[in-house]
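Before surveying the methods themselves, let us examine one representative protein, written as a sequence plus integers encoding its fold.
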Amino acid sequence: MTDMGRGRDVRALRQRVETLQGRSARSPIGAWFREVDRVLLLIAMVLIAIGLVAVAAASPASAVRYSGGDVTVPPMMYFWRQAGWIALSFPVMIVVSMLPVTLARRLCLLGAGVLVLALMVTPFVGVEANGARRWINLGVGQFQPSEFLKPMFIVTTAWLLSLRAKDPQLPMLWVTGALTAVIAGCLMLQPDFGQTVIFCGVWAALLIISGIPVRTMAMLGAAGIGMVAAAYTFYGTARVRIDGFLFPDPESAATDSYQVDMAHAVLTAGGVIGTGPGGGRVKFKLPEAHTDYIFAVVGEEFGLIACAIIAIIFLAIVVRVFVRLLDEEDAFKLLAAAGLAVQFGAQALINMAVNVGIAPSKGMTLPFISYGGSSMIALSIGMGLLLAFTRRNPYLSRSPYGPQRWSGAK
């Protein structure tokens, strides 16, 4: 085909695109539905539905444990509360997924600044629970800044690292490292070692994806090992958690090893197919059955097969996002979407590792499965951002002659 023929084809394609863009402008919801990754959205909805069933299974055990002997407390209290949080958070996810990329980025930058300030004051004004100050009492409810900061931090870090594509001399490694260090320091004051691991891990993953030298990455890895050793030496909470995991005391119900061991017992009590909905009995001995250890409750009542299916669903979300990003040309969208997927998968992996007894207790929820208002809304914001950054206009994605840049996709 001659160059003139190719030029006519490209002009015809652009004209068709402009026509379709005009139709999309008249129907924002229709445009969103064409562009959004419907497979990813469906997987998220399935996970939320599974989570509601899991909370229903765990609710009676938690209601009995935390009611203080009050027989008037309904056994399905946490289920109904979780249903309310889902009714609030799911529209939030859809609205966030409709945001233009530029607006979503600006809102995340603003949100990150506000939430870092909130994180700084949390150790001093926060509500204490189980020996930690991670929540701020707003009167009508409690608010956990670190949960909402995670997606904002990822988007902010992705934007800063994407600036290196324009100017490789910018010191974004040190800028993002300083931001991560400030956040990690605030989290350790609460204390919240699990969230610290998530923030540092996501930062490291974004550095790798952005293409920093292997030598620099090795130096950062060595520094990370040194920080863990320093935390064990000088940070009492970390030392207690690590010692409790490596040298468990099965006779003490006050230690993390007791919780991890009990979670393992609950997880395996149902065998391969489980005891059936409502048939679990060991779960009544499990602390935090509706939050940190809900994966174990799923294992008792629905079996190890159900646990494997949940793990596969989390893996499917991460794989789906990375496959979607294989031909992404925008450095910011690539980093932001990849970082959000890594955070989602890493949090799920840590929670499941604790439940099966191969990691010490972290006090971390299982995304979209565990009970919690702050967690559910924050995860919905994160998933909404992930859907926004992976949106593609199917008529603009590729032409017969290679990638076509669209100046409007910012």
Observations:
- Residues 33-393 form one domain.
